[in-house]
Write a structure and sequence with these properties.
Elements (H helix, E strand, L loop, with lengths): L1 H19 L8 E7 L5 E2 L4 E14 L2 E7 L5 E7 L3 E11 L6 E10 L6 E10 L2
Parallel strand pairs: 2-8
Antiparallel strand pairs: 1-3, 3-6, 4-5, 4-7, 7-8
Length: 129
Amino acid sequence: MKKMILSAVALSIAIMSVSSCKKEETPTATITFNEPLANDTILIGDSLHVEGTITGTGELHGYTLSITNKTSGAVLYTGSASNHSDTYAFHEHWLNNVSSTSNIEVKVEVELDHDGNKTAKAVQVVALN
């Protein structure tokens, strides 16, 4: 009888330990671009205005914004925030100084957790020369 009670107590402790160690779910993030719009055209010498928000379902671990010339492969701009938050607002400018008309990708990549889980969204525009 004593062994049965001890076994029941041990089983109860094991069940409570397993259920209390529930893994925290990775948050998700919604990235919204207010500007630029897909396929916008940027004249030479004009500024590309990048503005939008990131909204998470939990604490996010930062983001990176990049502007890349997809025609040449050149990275034209990068900026980031590494503070933990459940929302971010981004607002950046890049001056169009390309040497030839190019396809440009504006990309925001959000770090969802410290395990390397990420999500991203990109908008394509055209930079004229």
